[in-house]
Specification:
- The structure holds two protein chains of two kinds.
- By secondary structure, chain A is mainly α.
- Chain A is built from 20 helices and three strands.
- Chain A has one domain.
- Chain A has a three-stranded antiparallel beta sheet.
- The longest helix of chain A is centred in the middle third of the chain and has 33 residues.
- Chain B has a domain of about 220 residues.
- Chain B is about 75% helix and about 5% strand.
- Classes of the chains: A mainly alpha, B mainly alpha.
- At the A-B interface, helix 17, helix 18 and helix 20 of A face strand 1, helix 5, helix 6 and helix 7 of B.
Chain lengths: ~500, ~500
C-alpha cells in the first residue's frame, strides 16, 4: 500500500485551522499559565482566534473549491456564509461565557462537597470552557462544509463532545446541570449511532462515501432503493436530533434548562446554524434528485415540529424551557426552508439562521442578567414587573421576543416572510399554512411574557437585574441592533447572501 | 416635494425631541407633542390643497427600492380616499393631544413615553393609508399594533392588560391570515412577470377563482377584525373601555378605518371577482353588525362600551356601503369613514371628561349634568345627535348616501338597515336623557364645566360636524370621482333609479 501525501489548500482551510490552532494553544495555556492570569489570557486568545478566523473567511469569500481537502471538504458561497454566521454567533456568545459567575469553580468536584467549596473560596474558574468552545466552533465550521460521510461524522462528534461537557458546568443547580449533560450525551450518542447506521447504508447503496459519489448513484438510478431510503432516513434522524426537530426534540428543554445559560445561548444558536447548514448541503446537493422520497416525510416533520413547539411552549413556566420550545418551533420553520429546495429557500434559510441565531444569543444574554442572591431567576412568575426594574433588560427581551414572533420591522419577520414565500413557491402550501398558524400560536406566548414584564406589578422577592457586565451588555446591544437593522433594512445582507449562496457539487 | 414622507417624518422628529427632553419636563413633552401634531396637520392641509380632485390616479407618488431581492419598494401615493383619511387622522391627532392633556398621568410609564407612542402611531397612521406597496402596507399594519398595545396596556384603566392582549392577539391572527395571502400574491407575481408588491401590478394578476376566493378571505378577515364587523368584533368593547379616551379616539376613529379602507383598496381592487362572489354574505354580516351593534349599545351600562357598540353599528353601515357596489354607496362609505372619525371623537372625548370628573364610567352614575355643566352637556348632546345621524349634522349625509346606494341594488338590506337609525335614536337618546337631563344625581352637584383647553379641543370637531352637515360638497367633490372610479374598475354601473311604482 502506498502512502499518498495529502494535498491541502491551506488558504481555504485557514479559518478552520486557525480555530483548531487557537484551541490547542488554549489547552497549553491551561497547563502553563498561572491561575490568576488564565481568564484574561484565555478570553483574549479565544476572541483573537475567532476574529482572525472571521477575517480570513472574509478574504476567501467568493472562492469555490471541491478539493480543499482532497474531496472531503468543499468551500463555496453557502459554506462561507454559514461559517461566518457561526463565527459571529460564537463571538457574541463568548462575551456571555466570559462571565464566570455561571460556571462551577471546579467541574471535577462533587456537588456540595468540601472540595467544591474550597475551589469556590479560592476563586477558581473553569477556563477550560474557552478551548472547549473553540473546539466546538471548529466542529461546527466543518459540519456544513464536509463533503463525505466520514468527515461529516467527525465534525458531528467534534461539535457535540465539547457541548456535552459544557452543558454540565453550571455553578448553580449542579445536579440538574450534570443530569442534562448526561441526557444530552446519551441521546446524542444514540443519534450518532443512527447517523453512522445511515452512513453505512448509503455506502452500501452507492459504494462511495463521498457526496459526489452518492449523488451520482441517485441520479444514475439502478441502485437498491431500499438501501438508499434506509440510509437517508437514519442519516436524517442524526441531523434532526441536532436541530431538535420533533420527535427527536426531547433532550432540548432539559438541556437548555440545565446548561449554564451562556452555553445554552451558544448551543441553541450555533448548533442550529451548523446542523442546518449540513442539512442544506445534503438535501440540496446529495439527495436533491430523490426529493420525492424525502420531502413528504420532512414536510410532516416540519408541520409537527412547528405546531408542537408552539403549543407546548404556551404551558411553560420557566423562561429557558419556553425558549427551548420556541427554538423547536423555529427548527420547524427552518425545515420549511429545507423543503423548499430552491434558490430562494437556500437564501432564506441562511438569512433566517443568522437572524435567529443572533436574536437567540441576545435573548439568553438577557436571561443571564435577571438574578436574585442565589443566581439566575428563570421562573417566569418572578419576571413580573421587570419593565419597571430594568427597562434595558425588559425592552431588549421584548424586542427579541417580537423578532421570534415575526413582527414586522424585526429580522424575524423578514426571515419568516422569505422562508415561507420560498416554500410556497415550491408548492409546499400545507407547510406554509401550518407555519402561519403556528406563528399565531407562538405569538400568544411571546406576548404573554411581554405582558408579565410590562403590565404586571412586581412581587417583592429580591429578583433584580444585575448591573450588566460590559461584555454581556455588549452582546445584548449588538444582538438588538442587528435584529432591528435586519428588520428595517435587510437589503444589503439579502443581496450579499443571494450573490454568494450557490452550492457547487 | 416629497409630501408624504415629510408627513411621516414630522411626528418621528417630534418623538425624537420629546425623548431628548429631561425626565421631569412633562409639560414640555405635552407642548412638543401638541406642536408637532399641529405642524403635521398644517402640512397635510397644505398638501391637500395641491390635490387634483378629478385625477383618479395616485398622486404625490414616491417610490424607492427597499428590499430589491424581493421586489419590495418603499412606495407611497394617495388617491382621494387615502387623502381624506389622512386628513382626518392628522386633524384628530392634535385634538386628541389637547383634549387628553392629563390622561397620561395614571399610566405605568412616564408622560413622555405616552406622547412618543402617540407620535410614532401618527407616523404609522399616515403611512398605512399612503402605502401603495402591499408589503409596506402590511409592515405598517402590523407594526402599528405595538404602540397601540402599549398605549392601552400602559395607560388605560381597569382590565387594561387583558384588553391590550385581546386586541393584539385578534389583530395578529388576522394579520397572519393576510400575510399568507400576501405570500401567495408575491409568489404568483413571480410566476407572471417578476416579483412585485406594487398594488397596480398585483391587481393585473391572473388567478383561478378558487385561489382568488381564498386570498380574498385572507385579506377580508384581517380587515373585518380590524373594522370590526360582526362576528369579529368582540375585542373592540374591551379595548375601548380600557383605553384612555384619546387612545380610543385613535383606535376607533383611525385604526379601525384601516379595516374599511383596506376593503376598498385591497379587497375590491385586488380581487374584484371574489368580492362579487362574497358580497351577499358580507352584506348580511354588515346588516347584522348594524342591528346587533345597536342593540348592544342600547343595553350598555358603561358609557365607553356604549360608544364602542355604536361604532360596530356604524362600521356595519360603512361595510354595507362599500359592498353595495354603487357609486353613491361607495361615496357614502368613504364620507362615513371621515365623519365617523369626528363624531366618535366628540363622543369619546366628552365622555372622557365626564368620566374623569365623576370618577366612574357607569351611565347610571350621571344625571342632570345639563344643569351643572351646561357646555359639557350640550357638546355631548350634539356629538350624540351626530352619531344618530340627525339631518343637518355630517353623519346624516353619509348615512343617507349609503342607504340610497344600497337600496338601488339591495332593497331588503337597506330597509332592515334603516331600522338601525331608529335604534340609534334609542341608544343615543336614552343615555342623553339619563346622564344629562332630570334631577342632578347626588354627588354631581359640584362637577366643573369644560375649561378653556377642553373647549378649544372640542370646538373644531363640533365645527366640522356641523359645517359638513350643511355643506358636504367640498368633501364629496373630492370623494365622488374616486368612488366612481372604484366602481367602474370593478365593472359595475349604477342601476338606473326607478321612479316609484312600476
Amino acid at each position: 500500500m502506498t502512502f499518498t501525501a495529502p494535498v491541502l489548500s491551506y488558504t481555504l482551510l485557514s479559518p478552520i485551522l486557525i480555530l483548531l490552532g487557537g484551541a490547542l494553544i488554549g489547552v497549553l495555556v491551561e497547563a502553563f499559565v498561572s491561575k490568576a492570569l488564565r481568564p484574561v489570557v484565555q478570553l483574549t486568545l479565544t476572541l483573537g482566534t475567532l476574529l482572525l478566523a472571521l477575517m480570513q473567511l472574509w478574504r476567501i469569500r467568493g472562492e469555490q473549491s471541491l478539493t480543499a481537502a482532497m474531496g472531503s471538504i468543499v468551500i463555496d458561497g453557502p459554506a462561507v456564509l454559514l461559517q461566518a454566521s457561526i463565527l459571529i454567533i460564537a463571538i457574541i456568545s463568548i462575551f456571555l461565557i466570559a462571565d464566570t459567575e455561571h460556571f462551577t469553580p471546579l467541574a471535577a468536584a462533587l456537588p456540595g462537597s468540601a472540595e467544591e467549596r474550597e475551589a469556590a473560596q479560592s476563586g477558581n474558574q473553569v477556563t477550560e470552557v474557552y478551548p472547549l468552545t473553540l473546539f466546538a466552533v471548529a466542529g461546527m465550521m466543518i459540519f456544513p462544509v464536509a463533503s463525505d460521510l466520514i468527515m461529516l461524522f467527525v465534525a458531528l462528534e467534534m461539535l457535540s463532545l465539547p457541548l456535552y461537557l459544557m452543558a454540565g458546568l453550571s455553578r448553580r443547580r449542579r445536579l440538574a446541570s450534570q443530569e442534562s449533560a448526561l441526557k444530552y450525551f446519551l441521546l446524542g450518542s444514540f443519534a450518532s449511532a443512527f447517523f453512522l447506521f445511515g452512513a453505512a447504508y448509503l455506502y452500501g447503496f452507492s459504494g462511495s462515501i463521498t457526496f459526489a459519489g452518492i449523488r451520482e448513484s441517485i441520479v444514475g438510478g439502478g441502485g437498491n432503493d431500499v438501501l438508499l431510503l434506509i440510509g437517508m432516513a437514519f442519516l436524517s434522524i442524526g441531523m434532526l436530533f441536532k436541530v431538535g426537530a420533533v420527535p427527536f426534540h426531547a433532550w432540548s428543554p432539559d438541556v437548555y434548562q440545565g446548561a449554564p445559560t451562556p452555553i445554552t445561548a451558544f448551543m441553541a444558536a450555533a448548533t442550529k446554524v451548523a446542523a442546518f447548514g449540513a442539512m442544506l448541503r445534503i438535501y440540496y446537493t446529495v439527495f436533491a434528485n430523490a426529493q420525492w422520497s424525502w420531502t413528504p416525510v420532512l414536510s410532516g416533520i416540519a408541520i409537527v415540529t412547528m405546531l408542537l413547539g408552539s403549543l407546548v411552549a404556551i404551558s411553560q413556566r420557566d423562561v429557558k424551557r419556553m425558549l427551548a420550545y420556541s427554538s423547536i418551533a423555529h427548527a420547524g420553520f427552518l425545515l420549511t426552508g429545507v423543503i423548499a429546495l430552491n434558490k430562494a429557500g437556500l437564501d432564506a434559510t441562511i438569512f433566517y439562521l443568522f437572524a435567529y441565531g443572533v436574536a437567540t444569543v441576545g435573548a439568553f444574554g438577557v436571561v443571564t442578567l435577571v438574578r436574585d442572591s442565589s443566581g439566575e431567576v428563570t421562573d417566569l412568575n418572578r419576571w413580573k414587573g421587570l419593565g419597571k426594574r430594568s427597562p434595558f433588560a425588559a425592552t431588549s427581551f421584548a424586542l427579541f421576543l417580537l423578532a421570534f414572533a415575526g413582527i414586522p420591522l424585526t429580522s424575524g419577520f423578514i426571515g419568516k416572510f422569505s422562508i415561507f414565500s420560498a416554500a410556497y413557491e415550491s408548492g409546499a402550501k400545507g407547510v406554509v399554512i401550518a407555519g402561519v398558524l403556528s406563528s399565531a400560536i407562538a405569538a400568544f406566548f411571546y406576548i404573554r411574557v411581554i405582558v408579565l414584564m410590562f403590565f404586571t406589578d412586581a412581587t417583592e422577592d429580591g429578583t433584580g437585574v444585575e448591573i450588566p457586565s460590559v461584555l454581556t451588555q455588549a452582546t445584548v446591544v449588538i444582538s438588538a441592533v442587528v435584529t432591528v437593522a435586519l428588520g428595517v433594512y435587510p437589503a444589503p445582507l439579502l443581496s450579499f447572501i443571494s450573490d454568494l449562496a450557490t452550492f457547487i457539487r | 416635494m416629497k409630501w408624504l414622507t415629510l408627513l411621516m417624518l414630522l411626528p418621528l422628529a417630534g418623538a425624537a425631541i420629546i425623548s431628548a427632553l429631561p425626565k421631569a419636563s412633562e409639560k414640555a413633552a405635552k407642548q412638543a407633542a401638541l406642536g408637532t401634531t399641529l405642524v403635521v396637520m398644517a402640512a397635510t392641509i397644505a398638501m391637500a390643497v395641491g390635490f387634483e380632485r378629478d385625477n383618479v390616479d395616485l398622486q404625490f407618488v414616491e417610490k424607492y427600492s427597499w428590499i430589491p431581492s424581493f421586489g419590495i419598494n418603499y412606495a407611497l401615493g394617495v388617491d382621494a380616499i387615502a387623502l381624506v383619511l389622512i386628513l382626518m387622522s392628522t386633524i384628530l391627532a392634535p385634538v386628541v393631544v389637547l383634549a387628553g392633556w392629563n390622561e397620561a398621568h395614571g399610566g405605568r410609564w412616564s408622560v413622555k413615553t405616552f406622547y412618543i407612542l402617540i407620535l410614532v402611531l401618527e407616523t404609522m397612521m399616515i403611512g398605512v393609508f399612503a402605502a401603495t406597496d402591499v408589503f409596506l402596507f402590511y409592515v405598517i399594519f402590523e407594526a402599528m399594533l405595538i404602540p397601540v398595545y402599549f398605549l392601552i396596556g400602559g395607560y388605560g384603566s381597569g382590565e387594561r392588560s387583558a384588553a391590550a392582549v385581546k386586541f393584539l392577539i385578534y389583530s395578529l391572527v388576522g394579520g397572519l391570515l393576510m400575510l399568507a395571502s400576501i405570500i401567495a400574491l408575491y409568489v404568483m407575481s413571480g410566476a407572471q412577470g417578476g416579483h412585485t408588491f406594487d398594488i397596480n401590478r398585483l391587481s393585473e394578476l391572473q388567478m383561478s377563482s378558487t385561489t382568488q376566493n381564498l386570498l380574498f378571505l385572507g385579506f377580508f378577515i384581517a380587515f373585518a377584525i380590524k373594522a370590526p364587523v360582526w362576528p369579529f368584533h368582540t375585542w373592540l368593547p374591551d379595548a375601548a373601555q380600557s383605553a384612555t379616551p384619546g387612545t380610543s379616539v385613535l383606535l376607533l376613529g383611525v385604526l379601525d378605518k384601516v379595516g374599511t379602507f383596506g376593503m376598498i383598496r385591497y379587497c375590491l381592487t385586488l380581487f374584484p371577482e371574489a368580492s362579487k362572489t362574497f358580497t351577499p354574505v358580507i352584506m348580511v354580516l354588515a346588516v347584522i353588525s348594524i342591528i346587533y351593534g345597536a342593540f348592544l349599545a342600547i343595553g350598555a351600562k358603561d358609557i365607553k362600551r356604549l360608544i364602542a357598540y355604536t361604532s360596530i353599528s356604524h362600521f356595519g353601515f360603512i361595510t354595507m356601503g362599500i359592498f353595495a357596489m354603487t357609486s353613491q354607496g361607495q361615496s357614502g362609505a368613504i364620507l362615513y369613514m371621515f365623519n365617523h372619525g369626528f363624531s366618535t371623537a366628540a363622543l369619546f372625548l366628552v365622555a372622557g371628561w365626564m368620566i374623569s370628573r365623576r370618577g366612574s364610567s357607569t351611565i347610571a352614575e350621571f344625571g342632570g349634568l345639563q344643569r351643572v355643566t351646561p357646555v359639557m352637556a350640550w357638546t355631548f348632546f350634539i356629538a350624540g345627535l351626530s352619531s344618530l345621524a340627525l339631518p343637518g349634522l355630517s353623519s346624516f349625509v353619509s348615512e343617507f348616501l349609503v342607504l340610497v346606494g344600497t337600496f338601488t341594488r339591495y332593497p331588503v338590506h337597506a330597509i332592515i338597515a334603516t331600522f338601525g337609525i331608529v335604534l340609534a335614536a334609542l341608544y343615543i337618546l336614552i343615555p342623553v336623557q339619563k346622564a344629562l337631563h332630570g334631577p342632578t344625581t347626588p354627588g354631581n352637584e359640584n362637577l366643573k364645566d369644560l375649561g378653556l383647553r377642553e373647549k378649544l379641543a372640542i370646538a373644531p370637531v363640533i365645527a366640522i360636524i356641523v359645517v359638513l352637515g350643511f355643506y358636504p360638497s367640498p368633501l364629496l367633490n373630492v370623494i365622488n370621482p374616486a368612488a366612481s372610479h372604484v366602481i367602474s374598475q370593478m365593472g359595475f354601473t349604477d342601476p338606473a333609479p326607478t321612479n316609484g311604482g312600476k
